TrEMBL record:
Keywords: Transferase. Its EC number is 2.8.2.-. The keyword Transferase applies. It comes from the Eukaryota. This is Sulfotransferase. Coiled coil: none annotated. Belongs to the sulfotransferase 1 family. GO terms for molecular function: sulfotransferase activity. Residues 64-324 form the Sulfotransferase domain.
Length: 327
């Protein structure tokens, strides 16, 4: 496929001489898209690594910043939409039109630090962000924390999801951007890479654990959410998110059904039906519609073999043993 059609973050055309020198010293491996390098325990394509390094060199956190973190395909888009809707509600009610979520995709409203904002420079212009600034990331916690020196000054919300569903979601997503049929020949190497603990932003288990530990150590600054809990008890979880962000629902809002209205605005059905999400692309060349599919818990059962599921479950059990974390 034409390289220019791939998401820009998986390429290698915008790295500096400094990064070129650094990557010679890093562990690497090649997948069907390109070469990945292991930096601080996490695998990146070169352009993303450039963004990570730029971020670590130049990001100046503000105490009011909100950073939404996740492993790819864990519910990032949903978390972004919910956070925007919660923080916007003093200015824009969910029923308002225009509303930021009706005119832009959640990834345009809460851009990725390493993939979008810092992809080309360590001093991007962030003046368009008003307080509280909202950013997102797929970096693991220790890499995100590097510019924070000792303490985390801002609020970080992490969403995690069952590894098997993440794999299936990623498979569909990858087939879309590679312009391929949904084919098991794409899934199988992805499964192998996952189990070998290689793959973009992987290994997933260390990623999840980095934020899990961060949330246990500093619950005031790091909130750990689960996709499955958001699906099972959305009202409880959204209220939890609002409290953490410092914008709890008032009694009046609760009575007027504000939580349900936010949930409806941010539902997969509503967001995926909006014109802005049916058309258009993110700044790193991904089609907006590719972020919305089924949004079901346990969809892996429909696609993975029992052996695949068992193997992933066994690794997960082993990795999470003694951490207090379970899927
Ligand atoms: P599926 O592929 O299982 O359907 P991310 O946003 O991290 O890229 O994750 C994408 C996954 O979240 C996809 O899962 C997608 O359908 C689901 N998703 C996107 N928007 C959602 C929403 N508003 N509510 C629930 N799930 C959503």
């Amino acid at each position: 496929m034409d390289k220019t059609e791939l998401p820009t973050n998986v390429g290698e055309d915008s790295i500096s001489e400094e990064t070129k020198t650094l990557i010679f010293s890093l562990p690497s491996y090649k997948d069907s898209i390109g070469k990945l390098y292991n930096y601080q325990g996490c695998w990146y394509y070169p352009n993303t690594l450039e963004g990570v390094l730029n971020f670590q060199r130049g990001f100046k956190p503000q105490g009011t910043d909100i950073i939404l973190a996740s492993f790819p395909k864990s519910g990032t888009t949903w978390l972004k939409a919910l956070t925007v809707a919660l923080l916007e509600r003093s200015k824009n009610r969910p029923s308002d039109d225009p509303h930021p979520l009706k005119t832009d995709n959640p990834h345009g409203l809460v851009p990725f630090l390493e993939i979008m904002l810092y992809s080309k420079s360590s001093t991007p212009d962030l003046t368009r962000f008003s307080s509280p600034r909202m950013f997102s990331t797929h970096m693991p916690f220790h890499t995100l924390q590097a510019p924070f020196k000792e303490d985390t000054p801002c609020k970080i919300v992490y969403v995690c999801r069952d590894v098997k569903d993440v794999l299936v979601s990623h498979w569909y997503f990858k087939c879309i951007y590679l312009n391929k049929e949904i084919d098991k020949s794409v899934l199988e190497p992805m499964f192998e890479s996952l189990c070998r603990e290689v793959g973009y932003f992987g290994p997933i288990w260390e990623h999840v654990l980095s934020y899990w530990r961060g949330s246990l150590e500093d619950p005031k600054h790091v909130l750990f959410l689960r996709y499955e809990e958001l699906k099972a008890e959305p009202v409880v979880q959204v209220k939890r998110l609002a409290e953490f962000l410092g914008c709890p629902f008032t009694e009046e809002e609760e009575v007027s059904g504000s939580v349900d209205k936010i949930l409806e605005l941010c539902s997969l059905r509503n967001l995926s039906g909006l014109e802005v999400n049916k058309t258009g692309k993110t700044s790193n060349n991904l089609q907006h519609h590719s972020f919305f599919r089924k949004g079901e818990v346990g969809d892996s059962k429909n696609h993975l073999t029992a052996e695949m599921e068992n193997k992933i479950d066994m690794i997960t059990e082993e990795k999470f043993k003694g951490t207090g974390l379970k899927f």
